[in-house]
Write a structure and sequence with these properties.
This is Pirin family protein. It comes from Marinomonas transparens. The protein has about 325 residues and is mainly beta. It contains one helix and 24 strands. The chain has two domains: about 130 residues, Jelly Rolls; about 140 residues, Jelly Rolls (Sandwich), CATH 2.60.120.10. The strands form five sheets. The chain has a seven-stranded antiparallel β-sheet, with no helix packed on it. The chain starts with a strand and ends in a 7-residue tail after the last strand.
């Protein structure tokens, strides 16, 4: 095994993550054509609606009962980074903000002191399939920022930089830079209270597309970082000569480079990197704090305040079918 590879792990829907990351879910659903209500035009019989992770026919309803997705639920103490490669997500939250995003867009939301939001997957194509592919990554907040005001921002696909490099044989490798500068490419700013906002924390979120038979070297970073490479689409690759198969993850030595050689059809990877926060973590469901007492306080505060309540007519809020991708922030700005 390459000296750059510290450990290899298998992948399912929920991927292993390491400090400062808390969680990474990979949703890959081949939804059928849509009905008039923006749900699937298919029978829902046999699905445990409200808790459907069944993958029947290669798609799930998750916590949705008519439209797939995740109706209103609370968070405190961390951030969600949602990267949508295919399909659309409708966002609504207790701050009054809303949006529809997808097809390469990223939403970065700081839950901070507490927010409710819904994440629904509206199906708009009534003539054919509605594929959805997204990552949701949970990035922890340090104790000093656990109770900052909630905030969300959009990183639109058109504004997200992509590093393109030839591999010496005419094959172009593409790396989408969501967070963390790579070579001379710098991403759009992340939210101000994020662990990623301090360049000294070296937080990186990169999506690598490696064409058939292409080769690329993931450059060395700083030492003592968490760095994980997720191989989620393709067939076979070699990492510093070590054979790897799709649906594997690799914990890497952060200050070592690694040569990635594709041996099959086009391959895709996600890289998560960052300096560990190194604080105690107490987590229960949607709340992530440092102590058990803070966790109990989070539940108490939510029961008392509902984190501002829910200003929308539906807990599974979706926006008008005719709307294009958009964002309306709590201060009424549009983007």
């Amino acid at each position: 095994m390459s000296t750059a590879i510290l450990k290899r792990l298998s992948l399912d829907m929920f991927w292993p993550t390491f400090d400062p990351f808390l969680f990474c879910a990979f949703h890959d659903d081949n939804y059928p054509k849509a009905n008039v209500s923006m749900g699937p035009a298919a029978s829902l019989a046999g699905r445990p609606l409200g808790q459907d992770f069944s993958r029947i026919d290669n798609w799930s309803m998750y916590h949705g009962k008519t439209i797939p997705g995740f109706p209103a639920h609370p968070h405190r103490g961390f951030e969600t980074v949602t990267i949508v490669n295919k399909g659309l997500v409708d966002h609504a939250d207790s701050m009054g903000a809303s949006g529809r995003y997808g097809e390469g867009d990223t939403q970065w939301m700081t839950a901070g002191e507490g927010v409710q939001h819904s994440e629904m997957f509206p199906l708009l194509n009534e003539e054919g399939g509605n594929p959805l592919e997204l990552f949701q990554i949970w990035l922890n907040l340090p104790s000093k920022n656990k109770m900052v005001p909630p905030h969300f921002t959009m990183l639109w696909n058109e504004d997200t930089p992509v590093l393109k490099q030839a591999d010496g044989k005419g094959r172009e490798v593409s790396i989408k830079v969501v967070a963390g500068a790579l070579e001379a490419v710098s991403p759009a700013p992340c939210p101000p209270n994020s662990w990623a906002a301090d360049a000294n924390n070296h937080v990186a979120i990169w999506l690598i597309d490696l064409p058939e038979n292409a080769q690329w070297t993931l450059p060395a970073g700083s030492e003592n970082l968490s760095r994980t490479l997720y191989f989620f689409e393709g067939e076979r690759v070699e990492l510093d000569g070590a054979k790897a198969s799709v649906n594997e993850a690799f914990m890497l030595k952060s200050d070592a480079s690694i040569v990635m050689q594709n041996l099959g059809k086009p391959a895709r990877f996600l890289v998560l990197q960052g300096r560990p926060i190194g604080e105690s973590v107490e987590q229960h469901g949607p709340f992530v704090m440092n102590t058990r007492a803070e966790l109990q306080q989070a539940f108490s505060d939510y029961q008392r305040t509902q984190f501002g309540g829910w200003p929308w007519p539906r807990h599974d809020q979706v926006h008008d079918r005719s709307k294009d991708r958009f964002a309306e922030y709590a201060d009424q700005q549009k983007g």
